[in-house]
Structures are given as C-alpha cells and as structure tokens.
Write a structure and sequence with these properties.
heterodimer; A: 388 residues; alpha/beta; Metallo-beta-lactamase, Chain A; 10 helices; 25% strand; B: 760 residues; Ubiquitin Conjugating Enzyme; Rossmann fold; 8-stranded mixed beta sheet; 17 helices; 31 strands; elongated
C-alpha cells in the first residue's frame, strides 16, 4: 500500500486523515487522523485508518513506524484515535502549532482525550528537545510551527531552531531525514496571534501548508488549509502573493477546507450570503494542469438546509466548476471504505480512479423531463368540492 | 435587480422547476442580473457536466458555469447561452470564445411553447455531444467557422473551388473578382499562380491561399495571430510576405487589397468531402502603400520596414463579410421542389403577359440555364395592375422589357427575347435541339391554333406546358403535352373536354372553361376598341401562375412520354357549391393517327372507337359470319382549321340496317337520338361526322356503292352535311386496315359537271 509515492485521503466521515508516502516503504507522513470505533465495523464505509497504518507502515525494530504526524488543529474530527496510534505505531516526529491549544487554555475540558494525549505527548517531546539542546532522537522529535515570540515563552526557551518553523518557511526534512528533492512543505499559517493577519476564529489557528512530493512548488502540490474559512484563505493568498511566493500556492490537489464547507467562498454580508468569486478565481489561477479538489467528508447531499454543517452542496458545486481534473469526495468516490489515492509521478499527481465514470441518464435531462410533466390523467381519484 | 418582463418571470419560473427537479445538477447562481442590452437580463447558472466528459470531446470540469441572456419577449425569443470562460475557444459550435451555438436553425428547432424545458433539453444534447466530441460527426454537415466581420466590403463567392484544389498541399493563386458595387465583389473564378501568365487579367483580383488542413474554427483578430495561424498551417512567412508584396502592386493606389484564405472546414451534406471555408482579409491602402515602398526600395526603406513591422504586430485583421453561393457548399433553398427540375434547363416561354411575366421570374430563379421570351405585345398602362412591368416600360415591347427586368435580378440564367408574332409563327421558328421545355403562357387561341398546325408538320421533342386562367381569373388550367403525344394543345383541350363532360359535366370548373356561348362575358378594358381580356388582380394571377407551373411540372415528371394531361384548378378562396373538388385532372394517351386519303387531313382516332369497331366485328362474325359487311355511325369532329378529323367513337349498325357479304345498308333508327346524346355528352364537340363500314375480304377502296352512298349523304338528305367522313375497314376479317376518306358536298357537284351526263 505504501510502496509508491502517493497521497491517500481516507474515508473517515466528515473529518480529515491524509497520508503522504514520501519515500516508498520508508518515509510516511500523516496529517490529521480520524479513527472511530465505528470504522472498525466492516459494514460502514469509514476506513479504520490506524489498522491500515499498523499493517502497511514500514517496520522498525518490529514496530510500525510513521515518520511524522502533523496536526492542523485539535478538533475531534482531526485527531480522533491519536492515543491509540501512539500505542500501536512509533511516531518519529510530531508537528504542531502551540497556538492551537491556546484556545482551550481557559477551558481544558473542551479538549478531547485524543487532543489531550497529543498535547501531552507534544509537550513531553518539547521538554525532551529543549533538554537535549538539539535532536532528541526518534520518538522524541517535534516540529514547532509558530512565531518567534513563542520561543520567548518559558516552556519553549532554548528550543533548537532546526525544529522550529514559521509561516513562510519551507520544511524539507521529516524525523531528522533530509528529504530535499523528495519532500517540501511550505508553511502558510497560522498567522501571528494579534497581528493584522489574524482575522479568524478558533478554526483559523489551523496549520496550513502546501506539501510537494518533490522540490518544485510551482509544479503544484497538495494544499492543506485545515478548517480555514474565506477570510484566512484570502489572507493566505494575499500575503503569499505580496511576498512574491506564489509558487507555494500552486496546487494539483486541494483538500477542500473544513470538509467542503461553503464558508470558503460564501460570506454573510448584511444577512445575505454572498459568493466570493475572488477566492475561486485565485484558486483557479493557481491550479496546475488537471487539478482535483478532494472533499474529506461524508456523502455530499444535493442541497443543504440553512445551518447544516459541512459538507455543503454549494461548495461542491463551486469546486466542480473550478477543478479541471474533477471533484472527488472520500465517501462518494473510490472503493468501499478505501482511501482516494493520488499517485505521484515526477511532479504529476494523478488520481487513481477506482470506479468508472457513471454514464446514466443525465440529471439535466431527467430534471427537464420531470419539470415538463406528463400528460397522463391522474392515477388516483381527485376530489373537488364546494363550500356548504 | 432589474425590472422583469412577463417573459423573464416565465423563464425564471420554468427554470426554477427544472432546478428543483435537478437534484443539484442545475443551480441558479444569480437569477436576474442587469444586461448592457436594454431590457435583457442575465441568468447565471452552474451546470453539472461531469457525466458529459468522456475524454474525447470538450474537457468539461465536473461543473461549468453558464449564463443565459434573456430577451424580455421570452419565450418567443430564444435565450442565448454562454460559458462564463473562454477555455473552449476554438471549439466547433463555441463561437466568440464562449457563445454556445445550440441550434442550426433556432427558428425551426426552438419551440417557444416548450420554453426553458425544450431549451435545456437542447443544452443537454449539446453538452453530451460536445463531451463525446461529436458536435461535428463525419456524417453531418460542418458548422462554418467564425470570422469576425470588420470591413464594410462584402464578398459573394460564386465559383466552386476546383475538385481536389488543395489535395496536393497548399494552393496558391488568385481569386478572380467582379466588382458589383463599391462595397461588393463577386468571386467568380480561381487561377493558380502557375497558370497566371503575364497578361493583365482585366478584372480585379485577390490573393488566394487554400490550405489542405483545417485552421482554427475561430479566425484571429490580430494580424500577428493570423500570421502565426497560417505559418502553423504550412505557409511560410516568407511566402506570405512575397504574396502581400506582389498583390500590393496589382491594385490601385487608393483601394484596399484582399486576401482570400481557405481551409477545408465545410461540408455540404453527410458523407461529402470537406470543401474550403473561405474568409477574406482586407488590407488597407496605407498598409499597401508601405508594402509598395518596401518593394520599390528593395526592403531598404527603414521607415517603411518599421511601419510594416508595427502593422504586423499590432494591427487588427479586417475580415470582410463573406456570403457563400458556391454550389459545392450551398444547398439551394429550392432543392427537391418541383421547380428545381428546371435547374440547368433551357426554357422557351411563349407569352409575357400576366401569367407569362410571373412565370418567367420563377423560371429564372429556378437556376434555368437559358430562358427565351417571345411576345408580340407592348406594355400598356393597364397591365401594371398585374404584370411585372414598370411605368418606364410602357410603350416598350413586353419581351424586351421583361428581359431587362430579369437580367437586372442578376442570376446566371441567359435571358434572350424576341418580339415575334406567335399567331403567325410559333414553334417552327425554333430549333428544338436547343430547348428542353416550352411553356405557353399566351392564353391566346390564335397562338394555340398556330402551334397545333405547326405540330402537324413538325414534332416537338420536348414537353410543352400551356396555361391559362378562366374569365375573372377564378380558375386556372394547365395542360401538358409530352413529346410523343400526337397532337397539340388544342387537341389536348378537346380530349380533356370530352372526358370532363363525360365525368364531371356541370362542375363549376368545367362550366368555367367550356361555358355556354350565351353565358360568356367579354371584358374589354377600353370598351369598343380593345382586345378582350379578363378581370383579375396581381394576387389572382400570381396564385395561378405559381400553382399551374407546379402542377404542370409535376405532370411532366410523372406522365408517360406519349401522354398528355389537363388540370383545372379552382382558386381556393372561391365558394362554389361543388368546391370540395378544387381540382379536376385528366390524363390520357393520344388518339391513333391516320391519314385521310383525299385531302390530306390527319385522322385522330380514339382507342374507344377502335374497341367499338372490334366489338361489332366480333358480333357480326359470331351472329352471322365474318364475311358479312357491317358498319355504323362515326362521331367526332372535322376541324378544317387544323385539317384534322377526330374520331371519338363509333356506333354499331342501327337496328334497321341490313347487311350481306357485299353490302351494308346503314339504317337510321335511333340515330338522331344517339347523335343528340353524343353531342350533349361532349359539350357539342363530338357529333355525327360520317359512316364506317367493312370490306371483309378486300381492300378498303371506295366502291361504286360507297360513292353512291356519299352522294346520297351529301345531296339527298333532308339536312345534308357539308362534308362527311367515310371509313372503310379493309380486310376486316383478316388484317384490318382503316381507310379514311373525306367527301365534301361541292366535290360531287364538280364531278357531276365534268362527267356531264352521268357516269356518276
């Protein structure tokens, strides 16, 4: 399963679990995790991600070995099952932004068990790293994503800079391996707390990055924007362009932020939902070749009611207009409880289509037919009456 | 939000129905946006197109944005539909980069009563075909590419490109032009560069390059892009530049030059080979001046060179409007119609009056090769009411005036005219190897009679169609004579009359064309001194002219070579009691032709008469012996004018007749009644004209007894005829032969004087 360079998007309900096979059977990078009890039931179409990882990850000292795990933010749908993962798999390096836990400082109960497990493990590794004054070794490594003022904090003082990345930085190593030419992550966010760019809410603290399995960002990579919404993504584009680093916006695969939420391109303005075409135009402009938009979410309904959580049909429709390669959803496409797989060939990222195109009667033709109506007489009695 | 018309509201309602049933496949993004076009609105939509994508056709994304541009008079004006991007530029049926060409003919294919439903059905079909790359399948005509029109000059392309013109690569040469107007050229020929010669062609020309492979379906708007386009198609820039220089010297200083570009991108019908689609590029006088300066300075004029470079990089291409009339790609609008049978035909039209002047123009427009007009008359003021002449024609010969009018229409047909008097000489003035059809629209009895006479001496190897209208132009008649039919229009009319009286006596159409003499009203436009004509409007006449021409042509198509027909047609607005039958049709073979042996009259004997005789011969053979003579009365008409004897029918022997092996005594019992019946049943056209009898075993020469009988008939009856026909059926028992003799009363008087005393 991990024997070629590829990216997997796992069907985990409405949540994220993304696996990058950077070097076949050797270096695997996981971004977010959602492994539910439910997924272990074969009847569901959710994949038991940890089971797969345990089975297919390369073995080091007889134990499955994951080079690195990055968390975009500690919501349940991004971190569920982490505690179990730690037990069953050796995780070489953790990536996180301390800011994602700050929101929970005032209300520690708001963090789930898996989030707490992550936080504790991360803090353990920070302490070990500071203590080592450098590389603390496999199983203890951690990459901090944040701003320089972070290192002034007591807990992080003395943290070695080689494991510290700021937005705008490029990371080309995983768990101490220099992967230049094979792996490149450009950190887009989160923005600095309290800065002009800090425009969002809790979700907007998410780690955002472009991951390229190669060395050329302009050839387009995988854009991971966590649960960001329009304002932050707008800022990401604007700031990146302002710094002349547009290559890091190029994508062949875009993981639809916040599980295909319409908040990426629709904003409430004066009580009215307004389409933000500018962000769609930008996304289109930085699409390379036949790009794919991936929704990591439950099956997307044909329409939503007001207040429905993601995934949103409207967002899907906008992405469908945008993606030259196509729009795929972890629960609508691919095999039963199997991940969507994108193989990487040189710099090309290609979707492994497991099921053929459906060529049934077009929805439009059926819609016209239904709308036009039949000329048949009523099939049941129809009563008429007059008032007494 | 703009103000919505009733049509807009209907559109949105129908659209909402479709959207509601589409399960998300169709989404309204913006229901009514302002348009720059007054009263129009834009409807922005998102359509699921994933299922249309197959890998062979348009690279649809999963969804595509489309916009409808909606006229306030929807559904009577169909919506226009656009992609909101130009990713499909250059694709067939995506014009101007984003306009979706849904209908070949919106007029017929779009149904207002089905509104948005039918429209979106069409969108669905289009998208599906586009996704499969089947918008222009091999078995369908190609949609022409688009070139933007920016020049005010129009080109009409008349000349076919030569077959296989570009099979051997790029064809380079010149287009030969005809300057029709200041702003219009006709392209009338092609001359390959190799065949050019040194001589001045003597007419305007344009450079022409015909490529052997298709170019983009949308032609560029910038000179620079055009140069790239033709370079990619295989014409080197060097060669293009040489051509430009060459042609810059060919025209006048002040006029633009033209460059015809062709590429195989048109097809007339399914399965036909590709033909060039032609576009014409106009190069302005200023650019030509620069080019000339370059030529004269041998490229050393730097200012000219800079100017030229700027032109090539920055200038817009000025495309001319090209209107196609090449037979190789244009389907005639009258293809398959009755009149289309006249295409390439040579037509002789007799009579340029009311019917004739209308018919002439129809023939001209049918793509006839030649049309010759004959009329003796001049244009009088009164005829402008219904004949196709102008006030300026008054006093001129009709034939010549009509010729001028037809020539001004400017079609290829060669129109000639002759002010000939058809009453004096009709068909005999023509060599019929040069004509394919005669149309007689004279409605002139004297011309008809002249034709009838001439046809006795001359055969007419082509069909003839003769038309007329009844008094008051209420009814029309058209007769057709096929080449081997013996007899002319007069004969046909007579035969038709017999049939009409036999089958439809009393029908208003029959009455209209064969009226009782006392009921005829003659209309004289200038009472007292003018030729009689009929009352009828231009509308009446055009209706009949067109209808009669079509009926006549349909007859020519279906009749046997020796047949003829007559059709009588009532105007559809008439309200006669028997109007259920607007048309009476008669078709028939000609009578058998014999020669009368004393005066040289033609004898035309009907098949019915022959059958009647056969029956009687069998009867006598059966009842008595085939050696016994028999005979009876002959009914028909002796037409001295045309020197024709019509034998329509014969009777058997009247009951009081007697017969032996040597004699037949024709009785009289019942003959008066029989004659009255025959006369009435034929509108007085078929009456007693003589007696037939047999010579069972001898030749059909008149015997002494026979001559006595003639004398008796002509001189010794109570009401003797002026002349009488004797038919002797010789060798009646074996090899029957018909011998006709016409005897006149005065002939016997002469003989009696000469013989003086009486052998006779």
């Amino acid at each position: 399963m991990f024997d070629e360079r590829c990216v997997y998007f796992w069907p985990v309900g409405t949540g994220d679990s993304t696996t990058f096979v950077v070097r076949p059977n050797e270096v695997v990078f996981q971004v977010d995790l959602r492994h539910s009890q439910k997924s272990e039931d074969e009847e569901t179409d959710c994949a038991p991600v940890i089971d797969y990882l345990e089975e297919h990850l390369p073995k080091v000292d007889g134990k499955p070995y994951l080079s690195a795990f990055a968390i975009t933010h500690p919501d349940k749908d991004h971190i569920q099952g982490f505690e179990e993962l730690l037990e069953r798999v050796t995780v070489g390096e953790l990536w996180f932004s301390p800011r994602i836990f700050r929101e929970h400082d005032d209300d520690p109960g708001s963090l789930g068990d898996d989030a707490k497990a992550f936080r504790d493990e991360a803090h353990r590794r920070v302490t070990a790293t500071v203590k080592a004054g450098g590389d603390p070794g496999v199983g203890n490594r951690v990459r901090l994503v944040g701003w320089d003022d972070l290192l002034d904090e007591e807990h992080y003082q003395g943290f070695p800079p080689e494991f510290f990345s700021m937005p705008g930085d490029v990371v080309e190593s995983l768990d101490g391996d220099d992967l230049t030419g094979e792996f490149r992550a450009f950190i887009h966010g989160p923005f600095k707390q309290g800065s002009d760019e800090d425009v969002g809410d809790r979700n907007d603290t998410s780690l955002a990055m472009q991951v390229v399995l190669g060395d050329d960002p302009s050839a387009g990579g995988v854009l991971l924007f966590g649960d960001h919404k329009y304002p932050v993504i707008r800022k990401i584009f604007d700031v990146t362009k302002a710094h002349g680093k547009e290559a890091n916006l190029h994508w062949q695969v875009l993981l639809a932020p916040h599980h295909c939420s319409k908040s990426v391109m629709y904003q409430d303005e004066d009580g009215k939902e307004v389409l933000k075409q500018d962000i769609l135009d930008d996304l289109d402009a930085y699409q390379v070749g036949a790009g794919y938009v991936v929704a990591s979410a439950n099956s997307i309904p044909a329409s939503n009611k007001d207040g429905d959580n993601p995934p949103h049909a409207k967002a899907k429709a906008r992405y469908q207009e945008l993606a030259t390669g196509g729009f795929v959803c972890t629960h609508d496409d691919g095999g039963h409880a199997e991940p969507l797989k994108f193989t990487v060939d040189d710099s090309d990222i290609e979707y492994d289509e497991t099921s053929g195109m459906e060529q049934g009667k077009s929805a439009l033709a059926a819609a016209v037919s239904a709308a036009r109506g039949s000329d048949a007489t009523p099939s049941t009695k129809v009563g008429f009456g007059c008032p007494n | 939000m703009p103000e919505l018309s009733r049509g807009h509201q209907l559109a949105l309602l129908q659209l909402a129905n479709i959207v509601a049933n589409s399960n998300g496949a169709l989404e309204v993004l913006e229901p009514a946006a302002e348009s720059k076009s007054k009263s129009y609105i834009w409807i922005r939509l998102s359509l699921e197109t994933k299922d249309y994508r197959t890998g062979n056709g348009l690279a649809f994304r999963d969804r595509e944005r489309i916009s409808l541009h909606l006229h306030p008079d929807f559904p009577f004006k169909k919506p226009d539909v656009y992609f909101t991007h130009t990713r499909f530029i250059g694709t067939p049926h995506v014009q101007w980069g984003n306009s979706i060409c849904l209908y070949q003919s919106g007029e017929t294919e779009y149904d207002p009563s089905d509104g948005m439903f039918g429209f979106f059905d069409r969108v669905e079909q289009w998208m599906r075909a586009a996704g499969k790359g089947e918008l222009d399948p091999d078995d369908a005509p190609l949609h022409p590419p688009v070139a933007y029109t920016t020049s005010s000059t129009t080109f009409v392309v008349r000349a076919n490109t030569h077959t296989g013109i570009a099979d051997d690569g790029i064809w380079i040469g010149r287009a030969d032009l005809r300057n029709v107007r200041d702003d219009r050229f006709d392209l009338v020929g092609w001359t390959k560069l190799d065949d050019w010669g040194d001589a001045d062609p003597g007419h305007p020309i344009a450079a022409a390059v015909l490529f052997n492979k298709p170019l983009a379906t949308e032609f560029p708007t910038k000179v620079n892009d055009l140069i790239n386009l033709v370079e990619n198609a295989g014409l080197s820039f060097g060669l293009l530049y040489s051509l430009l220089r060459l042609f810059s010297l060919a025209g006048s200083e002040e006029e633009p030059a033209y460059f015809v570009l062709g590429a195989p991108m048109r097809r007339k019908a399914a399965g036909e080979p590709l033909r060039p689609h032609l576009t014409v590029w106009e190069i302005g006088p200023d650019t030509l001046k620069t080019l000339r300066a370059m030529v004269r300075s041998k490229g050393k004029d730097e200012a000219a060179r800079d100017e030229l470079a700027t032109w090539m990089v920055k200038a817009d291409v000025r495309w001319c409007d090209v209107l196609e009339d090449r037979p190789e790609i244009v389907n005639r609008r009258d293809g398959g119609t009755l009149l289309a049978a006249l295409s390439e035909k040579r037509v002789l039209l007799l009579g340029c009056g009311a019917l004739g002047s209308a018919v002439a123009e129809m023939v001209l427009r049918s793509n006839a090769a030649k049309l010759h007009l004959v009329d003796y008359g001049i244009v009088k003021p009164g005829v402008l009411v219904r004949q196709r002449y102008a006030d300026s024609d008054i006093g001129s010969a009709k034939a010549m005036a009509l010729q001028a009018h037809l020539q001004s229409i400017g079609l290829e047909c060669v129109v000639t005219a002759d002010k000939g008097n058809l009453a004096n000489q009709a068909l005999s003035r023509f060599d019929f190897t040069e004509w394919d059809l005669v149309i007689d629209a004279t409605a002139s009895a004297s011309a008809i009679h002249r034709i009838e006479v001439e046809l006795k001496a001359q055969s007419l190897p082509v069909p003839m169609l003769s038309m007329s209208v009844s008094a008051a132009a209420e009814n029309g008649s058209v007769l057709v004579k096929m080449p081997q039919y013996s007899g002319g229009p007069h004969h046909i009319a007579r035969q038709a009359k017999l049939e009409a009286f036999a089958k439809h006596a009393g029908h208003s159409l029959v009455k209209a064309f064969w009226p009782e003499r006392e009921t005829m009203k003659v209309f004289q436009p200038e009472p007292g001194c003018s030729a009689p004509t009929f009352i009828g409007s231009a509308a009446d006449i055009d209706h009949h002219a067109a209808g009669l021409l079509n009926i006549g042509l349909s007859r020519i198509e279906s009749l046997a070579p020796d047949a003829a027909s007559l059709d009588l047609v009532a105007a559809s607005w008439l309200r006669a009691d028997d109007i259920k039958r607007h048309r009476l049709s008669y078709t028939f073979k000609g009578y058998a032709r014999h020669s009368e042996q004393r005066h040289g009259y033609a004898v035309l004997r009907s098949d019915v008469a022959a059958l009647d005789m056969t029956s009687e011969l069998k009867r006598i053979a059966r009842t008595r012996s085939d050696k016994i003579e028999t005979g009876g009365l002959i009914f028909g008409e002796i037409d001295d004018a045309h020197q024709v004897i019509w034998v329509d029918s014969v009777s058997g022997p009247p009951p009081d007749s007697t017969a032996s092996e040597t004699q037949f005594l024709c009785g009289t019992a019942g003959t008066k009644e029989l004659n009255a019946f025959k006369s009435a049943a034929s509108g007085k056209s078929s009456r007693f004209i003589g007696i037939w009898h047999t010579h069972p075993i001898s030749r059909g020469r008149p015997s002494q007894d026979d001559l006595h009988a003639m004398l008796d008939l002509l001189h010794f009856q109570e009401f003797p005829p002026r002349q009488v026909v004797m038919l002797i059926v010789g060798h009646a028992a074996t090899r029957r032969e018909e011998n006709y003799y016409l005897y006149r009363r005065n002939e016997f008087v002469l003989i009696a004087r000469h013989e003086d005393g009486g052998q006779q």
